[in-house]
Recover the amino acids of this structure.
DNA sequence: CATGAATGAGCATTCATTCAT
DNA sequence: TATGAATGAATGCTCATTCAT
C-alpha cells in the first residue's frame, strides 16, 4: 500500500466512524436529536472535525441515508430464496423489505420521508434506484421471472415494481408507526398485505 | 348578531387567520420551518398574540392537523359516487384520498407521519379513525357493501380496511415525494395501483 | 351607608380579594411564582383589573407585605403573656416572632429580604417600624419594663431592640431555610437562642 | 510555560472574567437582574460564549457563589487575631463576618438566601459548613478554646456555633438592608450585638 | 367597573457554522 | 489533520403593561 493509499485509508476510517456514529444516534434517538455536536462528542472528536469529512449537516445525513440504503439493498439481494419459484422470491423480498424497515425505523423514516434526508429530488433518486439498484432489481427480477414462468400475467414491469414498492412502503410506515402492535399483529398485517398484492398480481 | 356574537366572530376570525397562516407556512415550507414567530410575522401580529389563541406550538399544530383532517374527511364523504356500485365507490374514495394528499402534501406528511403532529399514539388514532370516522367509514362501508353484493369475496373487514389504507398511504407518499412526476405519470401510477388492489380484493 | 360608601366598600372588597390571592400565591409557591396574571386568574378577574386597584406589581407586593406586617404586629401584640413579668413577656414575644415567621416563610422572606418587597429604603421602614409600630413596641415595652423592674440592667432602648430583632431575624431565617429540621430540632435551636440572648441581657 | 499551559491560562482568564462580570452584576443590580445576556454583553462577548465556560445559568451562579465563599472563608481564616485569647478571636471572627457581608451585600444575599444560589438544601450545607469548613471552623475553634480556657462556661459546641452564626446572619442582613445607616450607626449596632452575645456566652 | 386584545422586551438555550492556529 | 474559540440566528415562551371600549 502506498503512503498516499494508507493516508487515504486512515481518512476513510474516521469518515466511517462518523457515519456510524450518526447512524447510531439517528437510530437510537431519532432525526431531531441528530446534531453535529452530538455526533462529534460520541466519537470523541471535535465538531469541527466533522466538517473535514462532510460539507455540512445535510451532506452528512445524505451519506448516512446512502449508507443505509446500500445495506438495505444488500439485504434485499440476499433473501435466501434464490432457488424458489419467482413469485416466492418476490414475496421473500417483500418480507425482507418490511423486516429491514422495522429493524431500522428511524433510518427508514428519514430515508423515505423526502426533504429530510435529501434536500432535492428524492423521488427521482428513489424511483431510479427502484429499477437500477441491485436491491430493487430483485423485485424487478422476480417479477420478470414470475411473468416469464407464467405464474402471473404479463404487465409492464416498471410501473408494477413501483406500485409494489409504494404499497410496501405504506405497510412499512404503518407498522413503524404502530410500535404498540405485537409481533402477532404485525405478522397478520403483513400476511394480509402480501395475500392482497399477490392475488392482485395473479389477475389481469 | 349580538355584540357578544360579533366580538366572538372577530376573535374566531383571527384564530382562523392564524390557522391558515400556519397551514400555509407548513404547506409551502414544511414542518421544520414552522415557528411561532414566522406564523406571527406572516399575519402581521406579534408572536405573543399567537399565545392568546393557542396554548403553545403543539396546540397550534394540533389544530392545524385537526382542521385539515376535518376537510379531508369531508372530501372523503363526498366522493360523488354515492349511487354507484359499492366497489366503484371504494375506488372513488381511494382516488379522492390520493388527490387530497397531493393537494396538501406537507399537511399530509405532518398529519400522517406520527409524533410530529400528535404527541401520543398516532397509529392507533389513525386505525381507530379508519374505522370510526365518517370519512374512513366510506372505505369500510363500500367494502362491506361490495362483499354483501357479492362483488368481492367475504373477508374480515377491519384488517382489509387497514391494509388498503396502508397501501393507499404508500402511494400517496410515493407521489408526494415525486414532485417532478407529471400528471400523466401520476395517473398511471394511481391506475396501476387501483387495478392491483381491486384485483387483489376480487380473489380469495 | 351612603351610596358612595357602599361603592367604596364594594371596591375595597375586591381589593382585599386581590391582596389575599396574592398573599396566598406567595405563600404557596414563592415570590418567583407571583405574577399579575396568576393572581388575576386565581380570583377569576382579568389581569387588567388588578391595575385598577394597584399601580403595578411592585405596588401590589408592597401592600401584601404591609398587610402581612399588620397581622404580624397584631400577633406580636397578643402574646398571651400580658400579666407575666416583663422579661417573660419579652421572651414570649420572641417566640411568637419566630413562630409567625415559620408559619409564613415565603411572606417572611419577601418582607424581610429588602429590595424584593419594597423597591426603596426597606431598612428605614423596618427600623422605624421596629420602634413605632405597636408590635415591635411590645419588645420595646417589655424591655423597658424589665429594666425598670430591675430584671435586667439598664441600657439604651433603641439599639437593644434593634439588636434583638436582628438576631431574631437570623434565627427565623435559619429555621426557614432548614425545612428538613424536625420540630424538636427547631425547638432546641430556639431555646438555645433565647437562653443566649436572655443571658446576654442580664449582664452588663 | 508550555503552550498548553498558556492556552489553559488564557481560557481560565476568560472564565474568570465571566465570573467577575457576573459577580459584579449581581453586586450592583441584584440577583433578579443577572441574565446570561447581560453578563455576556458586559464583557463584550456573545451570550453563546458563556456556555463554553459554564454549563448553564445555574452552573454560573453556583460558581459565583462558591467563589465568593472561598474568599469569605479565606478572610475568616485570617482575622489577624491569631495570638489573642480565644474569646477575642471569636469576636474578631464575628467582626470579619459582618464586614465581609457588608462589602458584598448582594453576593451575601444570594449565597445565604437559600434556593437561589444552590438548588438543594442550603441550610444543611450551611450548618455542615459551619462546622467543617475551615472558615466557620474558626468560630468553632475559638469557641472550643474559650471554653477550654475557662473564659466561658462549657456548652455543647454545635448548637452554640449554629446559634451564633444565625444571629450573626441576622445582624448582617439588618445592616445590609439598612444602606442608609452611617458607619457610626453600623458600628454601634455591631458593638451592641457583640456585647450581647459575648455576655450571653459568659453566663450559664 | 372591568375587560379583551395586543405588544415589546426579555430570557435560557441550542445549533450549524467559521476561522485562525 | 484536527481543534478550540467564538458567534449569529433562531426558537418557544412568559411577563408586565397599555389602550380602547
Amino acid at each position: 500500500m502506498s503512503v498516499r493509499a494508507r493516508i487515504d485509508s486512515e481518512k476513510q476510517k474516521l469518515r466511517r466512524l462518523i457515519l456510524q456514529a450518526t447512524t447510531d444516534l439517528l437510530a437510537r434517538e431519532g432525526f431531531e436529536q441528530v446534531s453535529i455536536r452530538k455526533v462529534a462528542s460520541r466519537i470523541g472528536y471535535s465538531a469541527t472535525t466533522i466538517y473535514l469529512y462532510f460539507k455540512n449537516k445535510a451532506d452528512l445525513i445524505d451519506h448516512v441515508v446512502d449508507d443505509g440504503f446500500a445495506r438495505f439493498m444488500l439485504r434485499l439481494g440476499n433473501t435466501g430464496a434464490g432457488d424458489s419459484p419467482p413469485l416466492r422470491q418476490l414475496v421473500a423480498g417483500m418480507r425482507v423489505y418490511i423486516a429491514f424497515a422495522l429493524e431500522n425505523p428511524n433510518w427508514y423514516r428519514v430515508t423515505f420521508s423526502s426533504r429530510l434526508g435529501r434536500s432535492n429530488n428524492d423521488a427521482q433518486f428513489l424511483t431510479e434506484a427502484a429499477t437500477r439498484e441491485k436491491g430493487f432489481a430483485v423485485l424487478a427480477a422476480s417479477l420478470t421471472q414470475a411473468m416469464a414462468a407464467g405464474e402471473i400475467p404479463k404487465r409492464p414491469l416498471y410501473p408494477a415494481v413501483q406500485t409494489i414498492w409504494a404499497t410496501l412502503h405504506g405497510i412499512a410506515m404503518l407498522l413503524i408507526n404502530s410500535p404498540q402492535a405485537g409481533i402477532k399483529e404485525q405478522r397478520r398485517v403483513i400476511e394480509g398485505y402480501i395475500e392482497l398484492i399477490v392475488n392482485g398480481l395473479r389477475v389481469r
